[in-house]
Amino acid sequence: MNKITFILIAICIFSSFYACKEDEFTDSVFQDAPAIDPTSPAYNFEMWLESNFRKPYNLSFQYRMEDVGSDQDYNLVPASLEKSKQLAQLIKYLWFDVYASMVDEEFLKKYGPRMIHLIGSAAYNPNSGTMLLGTAEGGIKVTLYSCNDLDLTSFSQNNLDLMNEYYFKTMHHEFTHILHQTKDYPRSFEKISAGKYSPMGWQYRTDEEAAKLGFISTYAGSEAREDFVEIIANYLVKSDKDWNAVVAMAGTEGASIINQKLTVCTDWLLEKWNIDIAKMRAEILRRQQSLDASFYNNDL
Amino acid sequence: MQVSIIMTFKILIMNRKILYIVSVTLVLFSGCLKEQEDLFSEPAAIRLNNAIGSIDSVLTHAKNGWVMQYFADSSSAGYTMLLRFEPNGKVTVAAKNMLVGGQYAESVSMFDVIGDNGPVITFNTYNEILHRFSDPSNPAGIGLGGDYEFVVYSYADTLIRSKGKKTGTEILLMPLNEQENWNDYLDSIIGMKKILFSAGSPDLRLVVDGVKTDYLFTNGSSMMFTVGKLQTDLTYDCPFILTHSGFRLYNAEPFSKKGAKNFVLNGDKSALVSAEDPTVKLLGPDDLALYISETSVNWVLDESLMSEDVKILCTQIIQSVESKYNGVSDVYLAVRKLDKEGVFSLLLGFTYNRKIIEAELYFDYSLIDKNVLGLSIRGDGNSAGIALSKSISGYMDFATLLSSSFQLSTDVLVCPKNITFTKQNNSGTWFVSTRE
Fold first, then answer.
1. Which structural domain, as residue segments, surrounds residue B172?
2. Are B212 and B230 within 8 A, CB to CB?
3. Which residue of A80, B175, B264, B380 pairs with B126 in a disulfide if CB–CB is 3.0 to 4.6 A?
4. Which among A52, A84, A234, A211 is positioned nearest to A149, based on CA atoms?
5. Cβ contacts of A34 on chain B, cutoff 8 Å
6. Cβ A80–B88 below 8 Å, yes or no?
7. Which of B223, B249, B284 is the last residue of a domain?
8. Taking chain B, what is the end-to-end CA distance rounded to the nearest angstrom?
9. How far apart (Å, rounded) are the C-alpha atoms in residues A214 and A228?
10. Per the domain annotation, does B431 fall within a domain?
11. Mean pLDDT over residues B107-117, rounded?
């Protein structure tokens, strides 16, 4: 080996050590909290997000809409600051705090999304007459739509049902996608309703038609993975009365299929994630029922 | 022989090599010969960051905010909004139009200037006023189809030009005078609408260099002219936005090749004159007599604006109606053209027992001269008119007074809202009527 070759190798080795030395990681993958003007209307909220989402969960909570980060196929508008504040508190109370108390505090730090993006309007698809309520992308980002429709002026059952449909169920629906994208669900699940899924025509089925086919919702009939997460999300947020109403509407055959799917989901959550769905559901329903106007911190 | 061929081939190859070396050297030298200067002094990313900072500064330095001339798309009416940007990211938006219930309304939200397709002003939390144009809820998925993010392509303290990010629609921002009250400013725009566009507003004729063109602007009350070309079936939709001094067309083409977009009501209110080229104008009716004979609307008499002799008769009629019909309301007198009958009428209207009564006495008419209308009583009318001419004191006398020739005049010639009728043979007899 001549001298030049030796010197070149030495330089390469030195450079690689030097690079490792300076590569220090901060607490979060996201940049440090931006310097926010204390007079900003969002100052308190930003501080709250910092201490409740970014620091503990390494999660960027995007309430100021980023058009380039949204689905360009839809016409969308941002969420209002007021609705964002309310929804952020609901997300923490009905999702993050539930997992922290029922599984363990590290669970969502490890498996939770890194980004939640709030959108004010629904993502309408005029051609099919459908609208998107949420998406989960690659286990990283959850987008919630229709945030401006959040109505906290009353806590009637009707309003709670609406909030379940638009937000709470959507949160669990999208998070379950993240879970099964991390640890796949049993292939046996796909065989239960094989041949009955209708990716392009699910929206034309009535609730009753879908239930009789063994789907807990019309959307569950679109494809197997949606069916899987719909079973879990609906079971988590629906009261006994509402869940049983769908099962009763399904008739004997449909009810049997729905219960069979629930069993698969229950086993999968327990075996793969050590989550007792019945206990978690009880906690979510308890929290839902305890919601009232005093829950919200209006000073955010 | 064979050796000779090989040698020749080698020489050829060598020559070719020399040729290649010389060519490459020449190319290299020619590349070095002229040093191209950079078009920009700084890299694109730095220039974008500088622009973002400058635009943010320009926006927040306008103390009384900005007038935004907003078009949801290039084929719909324009709306005026007022915006005040603050350094802490807060933006206040105000409007007074039908979309916000016709009342002055304000909404506070947040904004940012970001780098996207160039510097972009984004309104990234929902604003009740501004996002109405881009909210896709009605009709589902589309809404009014407007933008809430605007790519800035030129900016200064006096004007920011931008384009909607999705639609490409041109949106202008101009600073508002520091002394101007927001509500008063928006009222001035509504006032301009009342002056220029209401039921029965005349068509506007495009005049260039003093010559009438074939283009006629109609139906301005919806902020969307239908421009028709006379003698043809050609029509164009021409959206515009009202300003406090007139209106701005979204696009003047193809009506005028002179770039005329901003039209300002001139001092004597006889024309709307292009701010870009004063030789381009929009004019109202030439002849008021012809105009009211072609417009089937009520010209209601204003009791506070009439000569004494006319006022005596009007008062007599109203008192007579009030005494005959107990609890009567909304009594008025008007002149109007009846298309079906082809006559003018003297209309006596009122509401009695929740019924609207419209009594009419008919007049033949003639266009005696420019702005001169001749009326001649016929002695007939509708059944209510004939009955009331006998029972209401002064009604028939007023009809007789009206059977004459009148000189017509107005204070806003480009769009007459009030017309003064003055008797040709007695200038002391006159009344003002208002288009309703």
1. 46-180
2. no
3. A80
4. A84
5. none
6. no
7. B284
8. 114
9. 12
10. yes
11. 93
Query: Which tens digit of pLDDT belongs to each residue from A113-145?
Result: 999 999 999 999 888 788 888 887 777 889 999
Same domain, B258 and B333: no
Based on the fold, state whether residues B279 and B317 are members of the same structural domain.
no
DSSP A203: G
CB contact under 8 A, A67 and B165: yes
Report the residue of chain B nearest A65, measured CA to CA.
B124
Taking CA–CA distances from A66, the nearest residue in chain B reads: B124
Q: In this structure, is residue B11 part of a structural domain? A: no
In a domain, B185, yes or no: no
Which positions in chain B have a beta carbon within 8 angstroms of at least one beta carbon in chain A? 87-90, 108-110, 112, 116, 122-126, 131, 134-137, 139-143, 145, 148-149, 165-166
Half-sphere exposure of A39 (CA within 13 A, CB side): 6
Tracing tokens 């040709």 back to the chain, one arrives at B424
The position carrying tokens 């005029």 is A126
N-terminal to C-terminal alpha carbon distance within chain A: 68
Quick check: B308 pLDDT over 50?
A: yes
Tell me which DSSP letter residue A145 carries. Answer: -
Domain boundary among the residues B256, B284, B312 is at B284
Residues B67 and B108 in one domain: yes
Q: What CATH number does residue B115 fall under?
A: 2.40.128.280
Question: Is the pLDDT confidence value at B294 over 80?
Answer: yes
> Given an 8 Å threshold on Cβ–Cβ distance, is B109 in contact with A84?
no
What domains lie within chain A, and their CATH numbers?
43-295 (3.40.390.70)
Sign of the alpha-carbon dihedral angle for B153, B157, B159, B163: positive
Q: Could you tell me if residue B406 is inside a domain?
A: yes
Measured in angstroms, the CA of A288 and the nearest CA of chain B are apart by 27
Length, in residues, of chain B? 436
Most confident of A24-38, B136-150, B173-187: B173-187
Q: Which long-range contacts (CB under 8 A, 24 or more apart) does B360-364 make?
A: B360/B384, B360/B385, B361/B385, B361/B386, B361/B389, B361/B395, B361/B396, B361/B399, B362/B338, B363/B399, B363/B402, B363/B403
Residues B295 and B199 in one domain: no
What's the pLDDT at A72? Answer: 84
Of B116, B136, B166, the CB nearest to A124: B136
Q: Is the pLDDT of residue A155 over 70?
A: no
B170 touches B223 (CB < 8 A): no
Under a CB-based contact definition with an 8 Å cutoff, are residues B435 and B196 in contact? no
- Residue A70 near chain B (CB below 8 Å): no
Using alpha carbons, select from B224, B196, B227 the residue that is nearest to residue B214. Answer: B227
CA distance B358 to B381: 11
**pLDDT, tens digit (0-9, with 9 covering 90-100), for B75-92:** 899 999 999 999 999 999
